[in-house]
Amino acid sequence: MLRLPKFNYYTPRTVLEAARMMADAGPNSMYVAGGTDLYPNMKRQQQKPETVISVMRLGELREIEGDRSSGLRIGAGLLLSEVCNNQLIKEVWPVVAQAAQLISTPLLRNMGTIGGNLLLDTRCNYYNQNYEWRRSIDFCMKKDGDTCWVAPGSHLCWAVQSSDLAPVMVAIKARLKFVSAAGERTMEARELYNHDGINYLNKRPGELLTAIYLPPPGGVHATYHKLRRRGSFDFPVLGVAAALEMNRDGTVENGSIVLGGVAPAPLNLSSAADQLRGKPLDDDQIHAVAESCYLVPRPLDNTDFLMGWRKQMTRPFVTRALKDLRESFSDH
Known about the structure:
By secondary structure, this protein is α+β, with helices and mostly antiparallel strands. It has 13 helices and twelve strands. It folds into three domains: 1-53, 2-Layer Sandwich (Uridine Diphospho-n-acetylenolpyruvylglucosamine Reductase, domain 2); 61-119 and 160-214, Uridine Diphospho-n-acetylenolpyruvylglucosamine Reductase, domain 3; 220-331, 2-Layer Sandwich (Enolase-like, domain 1). The strands form three sheets. It has a five-stranded antiparallel β-sheet. It is globular, with a radius of gyration of 20 Å. The mean pLDDT is 97.
């Protein structure tokens, strides 16, 4: 049985107190919310913080406010199950509730948070194993070793970004707020992720994700499709987030297509989406864009399913997403 190692555990009462605790605890400390990612990693000795600071009791991280005209502010501590069921989110940005509903199982959605999913550790078949298994292969670059066993000649780690909400937030141009003892800042969701399986987040030491800002939807419709082996529980091995805005004449004004589960960061396929601008969303255009999207990802043998098949599935999943959006516009 895998057990948690010993660590100091603190429960601050405010975000400011949490930031001060983190500054005092030093670099070998981590925040935790639901713990659905951190605690299993600690049991497998992938992460070894001496101090864990829980933010689950911070009410200010559980607040949500806004409307269609002003956009939404969602506290990063909102449970995934609350995101799925919140009427305001379902009314203003239903794609966020849609993607959250596809994460893991009901039990884990009752524990995990929206912020935790956005900060999810990258995953790999060689990394997400117990300590003894990883030691038997002489470890990997992401933890304790110096070789990426997925691509042994690479100087980068190719562990995969496996958040369902990350590609959605990039596609709809969400902004994220971080707080630390040094102050606070906001950034676009696309700026958070790096194409490096080890240094996968552009987050400064000691920063706590406190809020997600969703822009007013205006005429934008969005959807998310997920490929996984089972109908629940599994992480995505391909995720497609698509967002479109249409002109009154039936042509596309703006578009965004973002892939998850195939690289260390969400892949923003802006050039493929730009092909739709000024054109009708007909079958020929959808086919052309799906083909362009297929050419971009280079999935490796680091997660479930054959990597070549995962790449092939880009075409039908992008096609389904765009046809879903075409239908949603016709319904309105």
